[in-house]
From TrEMBL:
Protein task: Involved in the biosynthesis of ADP-glucose, a building block required for the elongation reactions to produce glycogen. Catalyzes the reaction between ATP and alpha-D-glucose 1-phosphate (G1P) to produce pyrophosphate and ADP-Glc.
Protein name: Glucose-1-phosphate adenylyltransferase
Gene Ontology annotations of biological process type: glycogen biosynthetic process
Alphabetically ordered keywords of this record: ATP-binding, Carbohydrate metabolism, Glycogen biosynthesis, Glycogen metabolism, Nucleotide-binding, Nucleotidyltransferase, Transferase
Pfam family, one: NTP_transferase
Gene3D superfamilies reported in the protein's UniProt record: Hexapeptide repeat proteins (2.160.10.10), Spore Coat Polysaccharide Biosynthesis Protein SpsA, Chain A (3.90.550.10)
Protein EC: 2.7.7.27
Organism the protein comes from: Marinovum algicola
Family named by the database record: Belongs to the bacterial/plant glucose-1-phosphate adenylyltransferase family.
Gene from which this protein is expressed: glgC
Keyword tRNA-binding: no
Reactions the enzyme catalyzes: alpha-D-glucose 1-phosphate + ATP + H(+) = ADP-alpha-D-glucose + diphosphate
Length: 419
């Protein structure tokens, strides 16, 4: 990082929007917000945005919470309490309805910042970096902030390239050759194409850079507008585009890659299928996302656990794992795992067979269980002999099964099997 970018990062406060439920993850977000969902064996989804900020040199961070925030707040308190005020560092947890009155839940992404303007002003940052707390990626935000300053933009919007037929799910930008945003439309039927490539479009990552005082003025004006939905994508950004002050920042310019990845990596793991695929992809010989580099660590709360243990060495009862990731505290007792990802403290018992299975922390897989293409929720106790992944009709009656054949198994679903 250059000295200039380092100085810009020090003048910036990151504001992470982490209040969303993530309803497409179904039962996985019944008791936790989407940013608090586990990912990658040890981390939570929000750890990626927070780690990007810290690794980019940004040490003042606010996290706006709302939906079922207890597990998220507990994780932040346990894993992100290393900031020191005497070094001008801070991490503020900002629940909805606390700042303006006792009835206002966050009405939209912009309102989630508006309600905490006094907190932001108290730190006196020159720039505000607004982040979504529910995506998986590695990015040096200081590169984006530097572009914002050099172009004199009113807002700089982080964007990724996506096929045009997939862009209907995003806010999409039409830009000129100098990255100036000419139009910004939410979930359009006919997304504008990238310059020089009719097959692709630029989709918003939900990342914005503003000068702080300018942002406060915008938000206070928006707050007084009864017709506004108080949302960045619907209200704030289109207005700045119309005034000619918005610029795009393509993700490829600031994506952090170790040299092993083939292309910039960004994922919205907001569906059961996408979540399963992104986690299982990590078990590949050459994963698209490299978590093993020390140059850009993903910080998190790390429990004190013993190493994973594999026991029994008999024919048909051998603790083994191939093309898999197994976290600390796991005991693989006479079970066979292939292409699996196990989080902390999982137990698998004799003669169990797992393939394409994500097992969240402290779940227990009973003897003779045979699981394929599943997500086992935290703490779930899989009974002896349970078979999942062989009979689609039976799976759909007992568990949450997607059209692609991925089954989500929770303890409540297990309890109903005996009912």
């Amino acid at each position: 990082m250059t000295q200039a970018r380092h100085e810009l990062a020090q003048q910036t406060m990151a504001y992470v929007l982490a209040g969303g439920r993530g309803s497409r993850l179904k039962e996985m977000t019944d008791i936790r917000a989407k940013p608090a969902v586990f990912f990658g064996g040890k981390t939570r989804i929000i750890d990626f945005a927070l780690s990007n900020a810290v690794n980019s040199g940004i040490r003042r961070i606010g996290v706006a919470t709302q939906y079922k925030a207890h597990s998220l707040i507990r994780h932040l308190q346990r894993g992100w309490s290393f900031f020191r005020a005497e070094r001008n560092e801070s991490l503020d947890i900002l629940p909805a309805s606390q700042q303006m009155d006792e009835e206002n839940w966050y009405k939209g992404t912009a309102d989630a910042v508006t309600q905490n303007i006094n907190v932001l002003r108290g730190y006196g940052p020159k720039y505000i970096l607004v982040l979504a707390g529910d995506h998986i990626y590695k990015q040096d935000y200081s590169v984006m902030i530097e572009q914002h300053v050099k172009t004199g933009a009113k807002v700089t919007v982080g964007c990724i390239e996506v096929p045009r037929d997939e862009a209907r799910a995003f806010g999409v930008m039409g830009v000129d050759a100098n990255d100036k945003i000419l139009e910004f439309v939410e979930k359009p039927e006919n997304p504008p194409a990238m310059p020089g490539d009719e097959s692709r479009a630029l989709a918003s990552m939900g990342i914005y850079v503003f000068e702080a005082e300018y942002l406060y003025e915008l938000l206070e004006k928006d707050n007084d507008d009864p017709d506004s939905s108080h949302d960045f994508g619907n209200d704030i950004i289109p207005d700045i585009v119309a005034q000619g002050g918005a610029y795009a920042h393509p993700f490829g310019r600031s994506c952090v890659m170790s040299g092993l990845e083939d292309r910039p990596y960004w994922r919205d793991v907001g569906t059961i299928d996408a979540y399963w695929q992104a986690n299982i992809d990590l078990t590949d010989f050459k994963p698209e996302l490299d978590l093993y580099t020390q140059n850009w660590p993903i910080w998190t709360y790390s429990e004190l656990t013993p190493p994973a243990k594999f026991i029994h060495n008999e024919e048909g009862r051998r603790g083994s794992a191939t093309s898999s990731m197994v976290s600390g505290g796991c005991i693989i007792s006479g079970s066979q795992l292939h292409r699996c990802l196990l989080f902390t403290g999982v137990r698998t018992h004799s003669f169990a067979e797992l393939e394409g299975v994500i097992v969240l922390p402290y779940a227990d897989i009973g003897r003779n269980a045979k699981l394929k293409n599943c997500i086992v929720d935290r703490g779930a106790m899989i009974p002896e002999g349970l078979v999942v992944g062989e009979d689609a009709e039976a799976d759909a009656k007992r568990f949450r099964r997607t059209e692609n054949g991925i089954c989500l198994i929770t303890q409540k679903m297990i309890d109903k099997l005996d009912g």
